[in-house]
């Protein structure tokens, strides 16, 4: 009787990276969605704070509006105005006004985040495929993809929350990318993004994950606004972002897409040793 059991392990190299969009490759600070969420609630007579608007970032935008409307602080303010808690019909009505407003807002926020073109080129030189996922819906992405391509960024695949059964934190957008790019197993793929939901999505897909603490939703400021923070304030916000992403289970956290290539070297070494995400 054999006393040993042998396990199959992938020891090949990385094959692809799946990037998020806003706050990761375009729209430094993830500014475009935040203002629109605040505005759709304001149209219902309810003020939400920037922090409340940003907390569920990364989800399908319908799920995001629902998540804000379920926050106890928001329910309280909603009740003061409407005499009852927000219902799902209110969520649907806000989502319907959200989509056209978001299409208009994204067109102004599609600047490429510094380092994106260089990192994507370096990944392709290594033979990696470039995938992408987003909480944006198809009509919003139609605008973003065209603007990004004009600025030199065009991933090999893009999957929206509306293309699959459910968006983040479920893994389907990542897995659809792997299918479209014909890359497997999932431990040969990295998911990178600027929100907690991005990390959860990648982990749920069985991929390695890299969080970007500075360029996206966690700090939520443009580069010029970050430059105006006091050194103490900046350090405090950055440390909070790093610790939140590590607590979510990120394998690596760096400032932005410009700083991630050494993570790929490390993952390659771990794969060669037979490690899994
Ligand atoms: Mg993002």
Could you outline the blueprint of secondary structure elements for this entry?
Layout: E1 16-20, H1 31-42, H2 50-54, H3 61-69, H4 72-82, H5 88-106, H6 116-125, E2 129-134, H7 138-150, E3 159-160, H8 172-181, E4 189-193, H9 196-204, E5 208-212, H10 223-228, H11 231-247, E6 252-254, H12 261-272
The protein binds magnesium ion (MG).
The site of magnesium ion has 11 residues, from loops.
Task: Explain what you see.
The chain is α/β, with parallel strands linked by helices. It has two domains: 16-31 and 110-272, 3-Layer(aba) Sandwich (Rossmann fold), CATH 3.40.50; 33-106, Putative phosphatase, domain 2 (DNA polymerase, domain 1), CATH 1.10.150. The chain has twelve helices and six strands. The protein has helices at residues 31-42, 50-54, 61-69, 72-82, 88-106, 116-125, 138-150, 172-181, 196-204, 223-228, 231-247, 261-272; strands at 16-20, 129-134, 159-160, 189-193, 208-212, 252-254. It has a six-stranded parallel beta sheet with strand order 3-2-1-4-5-6, with helices on both faces. Helix 9 (196-204) links the parallel strand 4 and strand 5. The two termini are 32 Å apart. The mean pLDDT is 95. It binds magnesium ion. Magnesium ion (MG) binds next to loops.
């Amino acid at each position: 009787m054999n006393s040993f059991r042998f396990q199959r392990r992938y020891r090949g190299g990385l094959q692809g990276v799946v990037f998020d969009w806003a706050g990761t490759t375009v729209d430094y600070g993830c500014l475009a969605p935040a203002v629109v969420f605040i505005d759709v609630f304001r149209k219902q007579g309810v003020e939400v704070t920037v922090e409340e608007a940003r907390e569920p970032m990364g989800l399908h935008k319908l799920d995001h509006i629902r998540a804000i409307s379920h926050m106890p602080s928001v329910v309280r303010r909603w009740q003061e105005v409407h005499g009852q808690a927000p219902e799902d019909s209110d969520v649907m009505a806000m989502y319907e006004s959200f989509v056209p407003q978001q299409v208009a807002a994204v067109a102004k926020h599609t600047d490429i985040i510094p380092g994106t073109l260089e990192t994507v080129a370096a990944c392709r030189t290594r033979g990696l495929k470039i995938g992408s996922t987003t909480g944006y819906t198809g009509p919003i992405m139609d605008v973003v993809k065209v603007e990004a391509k004009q600025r030199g960024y065009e991933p090999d695949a893009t999957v929206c929350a509306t293309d699959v059964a459910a968006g983040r934190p479920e893994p389907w957008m990542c897995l659809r990318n792997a299918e479209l790019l014909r890359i497997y197993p999932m431990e040969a793929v990295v998911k990178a993004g600027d929100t907690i939901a991005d990390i959860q999505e990648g982990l749920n897909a069985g991929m390695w994950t890299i969080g970007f603490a500075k360029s996206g939703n966690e700090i939520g400021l443009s580069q010029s606004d970050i430059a105006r923070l006091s050194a103490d304030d900046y350090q405090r916000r950055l440390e909070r972002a790093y610790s939140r992403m590590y607590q979510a289970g990120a394998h690596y956290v760096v400032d932005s897409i410009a700083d991630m290539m050494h993570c790929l070297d490390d993952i390659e070494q771990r794969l060669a040793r037979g490690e899994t995400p």
